[in-house]
């Protein structure tokens, strides 16, 4: 079957872990097929888990009312059992040309073996999580759609502090767009202030406090992480990890942070490389490298070596179980906050 006009296929299967992109794709198809007035009579929402294949197919085969298309959305399509799937497959093989039939799911599941059948008459769209440079490109393109340019540094920064949740990133982009007025290009300085609106990363913040020998702040961050049993990976509540015992992960991340600072410091001093070059070599975001470079100014090579060693020693002491881990972690932070020479 050939494509319908306005690039509309009779069948779509949209799946993947990125719900934001799935929702956008569904909304785009709805907007292409139905006006706001037409939705009342021609928009139908079903659940693959709750509704029968027969009921869904009967609706899909019904001629649209005062509209070119009828729009049928089946969510949780990966929860359809084999019997109901057979019913839906019979429809997919001979779909109505006046219905836009959309199945959406987290995974293809049992539908995977029928993907070729779907693609004969329709389209399969995978919505994967965006990571790294793909996520940075998405952020820049999103701002371009609003009519403004987002600098590379600003895009890197937003990805680092907000995280990879597209909904949160889009909301932050909207705030940035509104805050700069008539300015055509949004720079790093325009978005840096937004960091105060989101949660500080536990390890970055702790290492900042240690580097500045701010014992009170460092102990406060440690106490909060231990009490809440939560470690934040990004500056965002939803990217925090709740666990029964945060100590092993916290120690591991602190040691890793020391190693990363050391690597960046070494590359900067020995090769005089720019942050962008270091980021490519270490496969990190440029903003992350700049943060590590800034933190490196407060640590000497010997203090970095000592930090890694002390994290390892604390880990061994905790595993022996002779002293309470809370006290050992507190002692570690106190030791690390002692004056050092950059």
Task: Provide a brief overview of the structure.
The chain is an alpha/beta fold. It has helices at 19-33, 39-42, 53-60, 82-93, 115-121, 132-145, 152-162, 166-179, 188-191, 202-211, 215-228, 247-271, 275-282, 286-296, 301-320, 325-336, and strands at 11-15, 43-47, 70-75, 99-105, 123-126, 149-150, 185-186, 230-232, 240-242. The protein has 16 helices and 9 strands.
Give the SSE string: EHHEHEHEHEHEHHEHHHEEHHHHH
The total of beta strands comes to 9
Number of domains: 3
**What amount of the residues lies in strands?**
5-15%
Helix content: 55-70%
How many DSSP helices? 16
Compute the gyration radius: what is it?
26 Å
CATH fold-level topology of the largest domain: Zinc Finger, Delta Prime, domain 3
Q: Which structural class do you get from the secondary structure elements? A: alpha/beta
Shape: elongated
**Strand order, sheet with most strands:** 2-3-4-1-5
What is the distance, rounded to the nearest whole angstrom, between the alpha carbons of the first and last residues?
69 Å
Under the CATH scheme, which class of the largest domain?
Answer: Mainly Alpha
CATH architecture term of the largest domain: Up-down Bundle
Uncertain regions spanning at least 5 consecutive residues: 195-200, 234-239
Mean pLDDT: 84
Largest sheet: 5 strands, parallel
Descriptive terms for the model:
Zinc Finger, Delta Prime, domain 3; Rossmann fold; two-stranded parallel sheet; alpha/beta; five-stranded parallel β-sheet; 342 residues; Helicase, Ruva Protein, domain 3
């Amino acid at each position: 079957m050939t494509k319908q006009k306005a690039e509309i296929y009779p069948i779509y299967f949209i799946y993947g872990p990125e719900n934001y992109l799935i929702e956008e794709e569904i909304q785009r198809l709805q907007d292409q097929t139905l006006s706001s007035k037409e939705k009342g009579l021609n928009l139908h929402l079903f659940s693959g888990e709750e509704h029968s294949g027969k009921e869904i197919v009967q609706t899909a085969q019904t001629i649209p009312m005062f509209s070119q298309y009828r729009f049928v959305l089946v969510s949780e399509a990966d929860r359809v059992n084999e019997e109901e799937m057979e019913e839906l497959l019979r429809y997919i093989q001979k779909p109505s040309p006046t219905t836009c039939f959309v199945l959406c799911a987290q995974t293809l599941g049992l539908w995977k073996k029928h993907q070729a059948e779907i693609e004969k008459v329709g389209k399969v769209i995978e919505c994967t999580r965006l990571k790294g440079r793909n996520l940075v490109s998405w952020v820049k393109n999103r701002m371009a759609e609003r009519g403004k340019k987002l600098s590379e540094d600003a895009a890197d920064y937003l990805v680092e502090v907000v995280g990879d949740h597209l909904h949160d990133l889009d909301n932050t982009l909207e705030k940035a767009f509104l805050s700069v007025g008539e300015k055509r290009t949004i720079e790093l300085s325009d978005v840096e202030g937004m960091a105060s609106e989101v949660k500080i990363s536990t390890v970055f913040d702790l290492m900042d406090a240690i580097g500045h020998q701010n014992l009170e702040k460092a102990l406060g961050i440690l106490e909060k992480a231990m009490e809440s049993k939560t470690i934040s990976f990004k500056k965002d509540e939803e990217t925090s990890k709740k666990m029964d015992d945060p100590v092993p992960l916290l120690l591991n991340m602190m040691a890793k942070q020391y190693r990363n600072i050391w690597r960046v410091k070494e590359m900067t001093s020995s090769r005089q490389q720019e942050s962008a070059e270091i980021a490519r070599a270490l496969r990190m975001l440029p903003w992350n490298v700049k943060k590590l470079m800034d933190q490196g100014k407060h640590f000497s090579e010997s203090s970095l070596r000592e930090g890694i060693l002390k994290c390892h020693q604390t880990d061994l002491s905790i595993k022996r179980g002779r002293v309470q881990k809370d006290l050992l972690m507190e002692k570690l932070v106190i030791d690390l906050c002692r004056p050092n020479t950059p």
